[in-house]
Each structure stands twice: as structure tokens, then as C-alpha cells.
Amino acid sequence: MPKEVARQKVYSVVIPALDEERTIRGVIRAFGSHSWCNEIIVVSDGSKDKTAETARSAGAKVIELPVNVGKGEAMEIGVREAAQEVIFFSDADIEGLTSSIISELAQPVLDGSCVMSTAIRGRPIYWMNRLLHFFPLLGGERVITKELWYSVPKEYRTRFKIETALNYYSKRLGGKHRYTVFREIRQITKEVKYGFPRGFWMRMKMFAEVFNVSVRLYIVEWIINKISILHETLQGL
Length: 237
Known about the structure:
Helix content: 40-55%
Low-confidence stretches: 1-7, 126-136
Distance between the termini: 49 Å
CATH topology: Spore Coat Polysaccharide Biosynthesis Protein SpsA, Chain A
Strand order of the largest sheet: 3-2-1-4-7-6-8
Largest sheet: 7 strands, mixed
Shape: globular
Structural class: alpha/beta
Number of helices: 10
CATH class: Alpha Beta
Strand content: 15-25%
Mean pLDDT: 85
Radius of gyration: 18 Å
């Protein structure tokens, strides 16, 4: 990317957040010091703590939702509000995000070499996912275009379906998707934030939703597409 372009404020940050007053300030600070960042939008998804207040005092634009609507829906609200065509999504419960990581993630989308760039935290699930191609790699820190976002059917822009759906439709539309492992990024686990029983239950619900949407997109949709192609071929005979 030319230096004169790199100095411009060229992406909007969207951070969906649910009760993340402990970590939200640090995430906002990392983006606020990055020269390419045009705006930081925090969507407080029914938070009961001081997430919205903390985010606002840290310099972010805050959208407060009265009830929890889910991660995908909160992201959707942020995208609609965003001024830029390139969107940098980030989870609110991470630590270790640096300016160099932000640049490395944003650059491939900004220079047009890919339609989506995703950070993968260095953890065992990454290696499992690399072996099991069926399960798409997931990561809350990702840079995409609005064009890609709106190419995902609305039914998949909900809750935890969204990250799997973005992976799927970026490939289906022929766009390149770049994954980069960053061991510096750490996430506060649900078990730590909410206590083990509640946190574990929330994690299992998330895994179940990801599994269900993966089956629907990577198996059911694949079968439907193959049948459609076969049908068209037979009609042409």
C-alpha cells in the first residue's frame, strides 16, 4: 500500500460487547492509537455492567442495546452505522492487541489482495481445525469489506453463525481469505468471566450453534449445489 494511502483513516472498527468493562478500554486504546482507524463503534449488547460507560469514556462511539440480541446482530448494527467500506471487527474480551497486529491484519484487505483477513489466536483448537477442514477456523478479530458482509444471507448474520458464514461465503464468492496466527492475543474465557458452570454452558451452546451452521453450509448447501448442477446438466442433454 502506498505510504500516502496508509496514512489515511481507512477502516471502521466494530466491537460487539456483552459485560466487558474489564477489557474494553484496552481494546479501544489499541485501535485509537492506530493511524488507519477512522472510528471505533462499540455495540453494547444488553450489558448490565459499565461496558458502555467505559467505552464512551475511552473515546468510542457507543450504541447501547436494551436487551441482548446476539453477536451477529450486534455486528450487523455496527456495520450499518460504520462510515467506511472496510470493517475491522474485534472481540471486546481480548488482551495483547498491538498496532503491528492491527496493521498486519488490515493491510491485505486494504490493498485488495484478499476479501477477509482473520486473526487466529495460538491455541490447540487452531491445530485441530487445520486437521479437520470441515470446521472453519474462527476468530473475532477479522477485517472484511461491507460487500462481503452483505453477501451473507441475513439468516446467517445472527448470533455465532456469522463467523462460519463469513468463511463460507468468502470462498463461495471466489475471494481470498487470509489467516494469521498471533500468539500475543489472549482472550478472557467465558468460564473466567461468568464462573465455570455458566461459562461452560455458554461455550457449549456456542459450539452447538457453530456445528449446526457448519453442517448446513458445508454439507447441506454443497449437496443442494451438486444436485442443481446435475439437474442443469441433464436438462442440457
